[in-house]
Amino acid sequence: MTSTSNAAVGQTYVLLREAAKLMRGPAGDALHSDVRIKIAALQLLSLSLVGDFRNDCAFTPPATVAACLELAEIQTSAWDLGELPDAAMGFVLALAELNRALSDGRRS
Amino acid sequence: MSVTVSPFRGAITAGIASINARGLTPIQWAEAAAQCAQAFHIYGIGDPVVRSAAALGGIIALHSTASTDPSSVITAFKLCASAPVDAEGPASIQMEGRTALRLATHAAILNSRGLSRTLLTTVERELTAAIAGPAPTSMESALENWRTATALIGGSPLETSPHLAVAIASTQIELLRRSRDLLSVVDINPQIPGSPDRLRSSIEANIQAWSKAADRWYDMSLTTVAHDAAHTTTHRLALAATELSTALTDCLPPGRQLDALVRTGFGGNLVAGIVASGRAQLNHSVVVPTACSLEMVAAHFTEHRYGPPFRDRTTSPSPDHPALVDDSPTAIHIPSVTATLPHHDKDPSDTAVTAPHAVPVRWLTRQEENELAQRRDAGTIAQAALDGDPTARNLAANATQTELQALALAGRGAVAQLVAAMIPTMQSTNRWIARDERADALQSAAVDVAAAAGRWDPAKGARWLSFAWSTSWWASTDSRKAIDVRPIPLDVDLDRTGTRLQTEPPGPEQALLEHLEASEQRHLLHQIRALQGDEIRSELLTVVLEYHGLTGEAPKTFAEIAHERDSSTSTIVRRYREGIRALRRAVPASPTTSEPKPWRRPEHTPHRQDSTPRR
After folding, report:
1. Organism's domain of life (chain A) (predicted)?
2. Which CATH number fits domain B510-586: 1.10.10.10, 3.40.50.150, 3.30.70.660, 3.30.360.10?
């Protein structure tokens, strides 16, 4: 699907799955409804990008929604953007936009 | 050509006859709905309600053990698809098609019970609302598409994976939470027979059930070895979720939003519950019973006979009913990303159109990119005409001064929008740059992207993003280089720091190295020229040779090569990369001769050793 390895996409998916889990709990109440629905959409988008994903990622996801998203963005920024298909590129941009909005919201 | 205005007339007659006779079985209805959707597709009518009904038919057919007996209704729908139609009446065809399907649905409800009956009742309600009600909003369409995509997953013979189930649950929980919050900020029409408190408690119960199930699916997804969901349907679901998230950020009034959510069964909440639970676990699902209950309670609030069921509250919200948008510091506001493109016919004095803060940042489609390019070109010509350029004046001879000003303004707005669309990419690309240098790099990249927006030509085939992305990347790299080669401050004593600029001619050792490098280049060039056509395509090889100046001429830039070949720079860059890859495969290079790729992230240089003596 993407020129980026399945393991890399899988790790991003794991982070978004974790973010979605956290937002279902009390941590989600602090987030705006629009943010939560965007996280859910990004979780599905990342799932659709995962090719043959195996749950053998040897890392522990962060404990907050914001940290999960930030780490996911850092991972996607390492992808080879020049060769990504449109769907993956859209995902990268949407994730970056959401992260930026979250950062702006925290600053203001 | 014979013209038939109403191809669904036969299906309507058969539907009425079926209601008066034995009705339809659910599986017969599923087949009829599929035929109806097929007919709509052939006539080029995109109807989300009918599409959703057909997808739901897939689930009903999959859960039914009975076989499809022939029915006059199915035959009538099959005939609809082959009937010649009046090309000017798609609206009336759509209306008749919906009516025919509604009658067939009613006939099927007579013969169904349990879950099938609840699903069919939802379909009938939506078809009735679609026939009598106003045109659907973008949010309603997005909710319908989400439901259709979910139903398509359920219609697949594959069992839903826990990964997919937990993702569906996340979205569905958010739709329900939003409905619950909206319920607190609207007034209920007092003539509606339903109880708002019961609706609220049913939503809450369903959220709890979804959360419980989602936690279980999450645990299962941790141990599931592979993501086994069908890729096409998952991708479609992901697109529907993205559309939904965009539609929900539109600034529809709360009453309209809640109305759309309730009318669509909270985005097909029951269907999502059936699909996520899976066929094997359907009888033990905690989601489906609460979703059924919510469906029945919410049915009262779909009634439009007494006017809109939900009205926006005009007074400020009381403490008991907090507003949907939380003003607390922890709440985060997402800016709207769905603003429309600026138009020519706007008043040029309307500065909001092109004000920087009004430029939306979002992913542009190809059509929008082309439209912006056209607007930019028109603006350039208009500005030239305003500046007195004779050629431009001739081109714009019929335009008035005001029109020219408007076009020039729209052109500048188009360029601004092209640049704004690149900002997330530029920020993402510049992440590897040190924090204190990032703003400079971004500014430099933005200046380059603005220049690129002026010379980008969509006719050459490259998308704006591809074209601008490489430009902004190079801009940020150049900026980094500019920082790295900053002139040495004049007050630095070169003798003391041990650094000495080379002003003398190269010594014998350096001359030997240069000679070896030149001979190695000649050898490499000889090897490249000896390559056969099946090892590397000639156009790729030509680009590589011209770029490195190995054709006997001076080295050329990508832009120069693109200009000579009447192609885009990004295409030439792509060919260069392909050429280099092909060369690497064909000509084995020693590790010492391989260069770092220019588009790769540079390795971090080690810190300089501190020469200050330690205490």
Report:
1. Bacteria
2. 1.10.10.10
